[in-house]
Write a structure and sequence with these properties.
alpha/beta, 291 residues, seven-stranded mixed beta sheet, binds S-adenosylmethionine, 11 strands, Rossmann fold
Length: 291
Amino acid sequence: MLLGDFLKEGISRLEPLYPTPEARDIILSLCESRLGIGRYTYATDPQYSIGQESLAVLSEDLDRLAAAEPLQYVLGFSDFHGHRFKVTPDVLIPRPETEILCDEAIKIAHNHGPAPKVLDLCTGSGCIAWTMALEVPGALVYGIDVSPKALSVASGQDLSPACHGWLDQPSPSFLQADILQAPPHFPCGQFDLILSNPPYVMDSQKKEMRPNVLEYEPSIALFVPDEDPLVFYRAVARWSQALLAPGGTGIAEINELFGDEVRDLFLSSGFPQVSILKDFSKKNRFVKFAK
Ligand SMILES: C[S@@+](CC[C@H](N)C(=O)[O-])C[C@H]1O[C@@H](n2cnc3c(N)ncnc32)[C@H](O)[C@@H]1O
């Protein structure tokens, strides 16, 4: 089958689920990854023909995509902050906004002096914890999650720091804990940075979400009750009161609807400096607090 014909068929099967430019982008990414070709091969080599074996794989992929499964689960990976993370339906697919949290945290960590200690609450795939371990030389990083399946994905990432140039850098340590409960004892003592992307989408916001998220991503990673949308921020504040070192900084991703409420929560939890940071769309997306 000609690549161009597969593209046409793929796009038309995804158009009921996604706007056409997004459907096209998904199919181009699929072909790029599965066939190892350039994104524009269909234009530069209009006679490019897909072999039988590859076509069988692509057809299976297309059936999964047409059933609204996200491309990242179909391929088994997601790129985040320049690193390739394994993802399964047990973990949230890392979002581009969360890269902003990492950028900010890396800047702070670099100004902090050698070997900063970093705690990532609600680690999921471990994308934040691993990014810190890979990009901050000497960082000692812990990732916490309540889900054993997520922790197995996080600790099974094939991202050894040695492959990225930090020969003596340890991989992050991943531990199971419920952040709605009291924090455990950490042998390393307090942390210089506490980071978190906790669940923050209200149940009532489900109706605005698409089937690729609602039907495939783990709801434990996403949703909080409408009656208590800040439940995880009270938990992050409690853990940070106990575990953030004096002079340390916390950053957590937030629901854009609750910037003021989250700022007030951290101020009234005894953190003297609290600010709200924006994302790419200028929406309130992060709370930053210092001890
Ligand atoms: C929004 S996802 C974030 C995953 C990852 N940090 C990221 O940015 O892509 C939230 C994570 O919180 C975890 N989680 C939910 N409830 C929790 C709890 N009570 N204690 C610890 N982790 C929890 C979920 O398992 C999920 O992995």
